[in-house]
Amino acid sequence: MTPYDKIFENNKAWAEEQLRADPEFFNKLSVSQQPDFLYIGCSDSRVPANQIMGLAPGDVFVHRNVANLVNNVDLNVMSVINYAVRQLDVKHIIVCGHYGCGGVRAAMQPKDLGILNPWLRNIRDVYRFHKQELDGIADETKRYERLVELNVLEQSINIIKTAAVQKSYLTRGFPIVHSWVFDLRNGILQDLKLDFVQTLHNIQEVYDLTKE
């Protein structure tokens, strides 16, 4: 059996397992989704959103791209955020990066990466914003790990800049934006402790889209 064919065998076994645990599992799953969480993460195959959070299908609305970027001209991620906030009423938005991110490392290599150049330039911009701090880290591995963290924080800020998030929070008290990093070496999530309320306040000095 090929790895491709094995997928369908795995799927059948998984479906049967869910039904053994709960005969109404798929009936309930097919009705609607009401996730509390929007997860924006890296496309890296080693970081599966639901599994690392210990949550089931239907609990997490997920968007993934190379290096977990939130680019304001990327209609894909902007549509996901708007739908999650305005239609699904998610309570939390999580940007999750991971140590050892190939996209972050590639962005700092002096190499022409073709179509990836404009995408990864967003990470180079993060380095530029924090150049003094990053250049002060002598250990290369630790420097890249810190860039992973700073990239997550900057992408979280980009979410807070959006009208959907600002208006929803001011009228309903949610969603709250969080910044996480996943450590592939031990499987542990690290909360970077983004101060959402203070960050929103600071953001609105320039990016206020609510007049409130």
Molecular structure report:
This protein has ten helices and five strands; from the N terminus they run ααβαβαβαααααββα. With about 210 residues, it is an alpha/beta fold. It has two domains: about 1-30, no CATH class; about 35-205, Carbonic anhydrase (Beta-carbonic Anhydrase, Chain A, 3-Layer(aba) Sandwich). Strand 4 (about 175-185) and strand 5 form a beta hairpin. It starts with a helix and ends in a 5-residue tail after the last helix. The mean pLDDT is about 95. Keywords: Lyase, Metal-binding, Zinc.
> Uncertain runs with pLDDT below 50, 5 residues or more?
none
Specify the biggest β-sheet.
Answer: 5 strands, mixed
Alpha-carbon distance between the termini?
Answer: 61 Å
Mind telling me the CATH superfamily name of the largest domain?
Carbonic anhydrase
Mean pLDDT: 95
- Helix proportion of residues, in percent? 40-55%
> In what range is the share of β-strand residues?
5-15%
**Class from helix and strand fractions:** alpha/beta
* H/E series: HHEHEHEHHHHHEEH
Give the C-alpha Rg. Answer: 19 Å
Number of domains: 2
Coarse morphology: globular
Q: What's the helix count? A: 10
The name CATH uses for the topology of the largest domain is Beta-carbonic Anhydrase, Chain A
Binding site for Zn(2+): 42, 44, 98, 101
Enzyme class: lyase
Catalytic activity: hydrogencarbonate + H(+) = CO2 + H2O
GO biological process, one term: cellular response to carbon dioxide
Summarize it:
The relative contact order is 0.13.
